[in-house]
Write a structure and sequence with these properties.
Elements: H1 21-43, H2 45-49, H3 74-99, H4 108-124, H5 135-166, H6 170-203, H7 208-233, H8 236-239, H9 249-257, H10 260-290, H11 296-311, H12 313-323, H13 325-344, H14 354-391, H15 396-422, H16 432-453
Helix pairs in contact: 1-4, 1-5, 1-6, 1-7, 3-5, 3-15, 4-5, 4-7, 5-14, 5-15, 6-7, 6-14, 10-11, 10-13, 10-14, 10-15, 10-16, 11-14, 12-13, 13-14, 13-16, 14-15
Length: 458
């Protein structure tokens, strides 16, 4: 039985205005901020707390470096625990955000409160309380990481909810998704600048620890300014389509669980993140053990993929106008799968051609990366609008919270299963475990394609 159409009373006193491009750019700058603020905690914790050993270790040992329970490490446990906490907090903050009443705007209130502690705890993670290995440093790391992930969700989930509320039409939502994809990428690139800043500060006489910490303080200060711009100046009540929500967490979850089309999207989205995380974890293994190249080739592959995908953002928008979101996503799954198939069977190619082949795959990977970088947010926004039109319930925060939770489940499952496959073999003589990871990723892509085939765009 079809849901009856319902015309709810708007949250604003007047019908919200369609935001001009300058407002959307202001909103997208917040994405640059949180992408930059989250880079270190997401990518540099192992680098700082278990630094590479090239003669003298780059940084002192601040926490125990050995194995825990035979196979784990303290930094690994903290990182995994933080991700789990993040995933659990996402839906709770989402529902809180949907039900919030504030004269500032129900999302903007979270941005204002969350931005500063988000940036502060992202920085404090890398400022141990003791200069050498101690239990105090470990406890400090646990507390700062937990608070960081809480405020990460506190800012990011309401921020993402605004994508659907600022996008009054499907075309607007595609534009917003493209803008935030660009600013996310800029934040990621800026985060990688920590290494260049660290090197420069070391030449100015700072120790490696001081240079690294000062670089992070500088970058996170920029990140905080970017996060505060939409929090301070975005006129949410003027531009965002909002309805006052009063559903409990359970009621909101039941509403979303009943949305069959959204469930299909989530199933395929989970499989995409499993495949993507496999390629992120496996790139250095593929480059060295299957393509027989130096480990630096893995970085070159990633750089080529990133730059090429950046160039393809506009063509992807044009392709969506011609094909629609569903067909474009299905093509991305298939292309992603072909890339993994080539990686798994790269042994059949001549040895001298493998370097060129790897970089060609980097260019080819740009298309699915650009598509998956833009379309999921736009699709979630479409589902939010459909639910609002059919039932009168606006659950923007909850939709994006569940989407983020699904992504983190995919990342966690990939991190759990990938090392187990390597036990089959991870050497040039016995690369079967590495090949197995590519074949399993291929299976994820095929299953994701099949799952998304049942998604209905209209």
């Amino acid at each position: 039985m079809a849901k009856r159409l319902y015309q709810p009373a708007p949250h604003q006193a007047l019908h919200p205005e369609r935001p001009p491009i300058r407002v959307l750019v202001l909103y997208a700058i917040g994405q640059l901020g949180w992408s930059l603020a989250s880079f270190a905690a997401g990518n540099l914790m192992v680098y700082f707390f278990m630094p590479p050993e090239q003669g003298t270790p780059l940084f002192p040992s601040y926490i125990y470096q050995g194995a825990v329970l035979g196979v784990f490490t303290l930094i690994g446990i903290v990182s995994a625990g933080g991700r789990i906490l993040d995933g659990l907090v996402d839906p709770l903050v989402a529902n809180w955000s949907d039900r919030r009443r504030s004269t500032l705007g129900k999302r903007r209130w979270f941005l204002l409160i969350g931005a500063t502690p988000f940036a502060v705890f992202a920085t404090l993670i890398f400022f141990p309380v003791d200069p050498s290995e101690s239990a105090g440093n470990f406890m400090w790391l646990v507390v700062c990481t937990a608070l960081y992930y809480f405020f990460f969700a506190f800012y990011v989930i309401p921020y993402n909810a605004l994508m659907a509320e600022l996008g009054h039409t499907a075309k607007d939502r595609m534009l917003i998704s493209t803008l935030v994809s660009v600013t996310w990428a800029l934040g990621f690139v800026a985060g990688n600048g920590v290494f260049a800043l660290q090197g420069w500060l070391e030449t100015e006489g700072k120790t490696p620890v001081q240079a690294f910490q000062y670089a992070l303080v500088f970058l996170h200060a920029i990140a905080l300014c970017c996060m505060l711009l939409p929090a301070l100046f975005l006129q949410e009540n003027r531009y965002a389509r909002q309805i006052t929500g009063d559903q409990s967490f359970r009621e909101a979850l039941q509403t979303i669980a009943a949305n069959r089309n959204f469930r299909r999207f989530l199933g395929s989205f989970l499989l995409y993140w499993l495949a993507l995380t496999f390629i992120q974890l496996g790139m250095v293994y593929y480059a060295t053990l299957l393509f027989h190249l130096e480990k630096e080739a893995a970085f070159t592959f990633s750089l080529i993929s990133f730059l090429s995908s950046f160039i393809l953002y506009v063509p992807v928008n044009l392709l969506v106008q011609k094909w629609g979101k569903r067909r474009t996503m299905l093509a991305a799954y298939l292309l992603f799968g072909v890339l993994f198939a080539i990686v798994a069977f790269v042994g059949i190619f001549p040895e001298g051609s493998k370097k060129a082949l790897l970089y060609a795959l980097g260019v080819a990977a740009a298309a699915p990366l650009a598509i998956f970088g833009i379309l999921p947010n736009a699709l979630v926004g479409d589902e939010i609008v459909k639910e609002e039109q059919q039932s009168g319930k606006q659950l923007s925060g909850m939709f994006y919270g569940i989407t983020a939770f699904t992504m983190k489940i995919g990342i966690s499952l990939a991190n759990l299963t990938f090392p187990s496959l390597l036990l089959v073999g991870k050497s040039r003589e016995q690369p079967m475990g590495v090949q197995a990871t590519a074949l399993v990723a291929l299976l994820f892509c095929i299953t994701g394609w099949y799952t998304f085939r049942r998604y209905r765009e209209d």
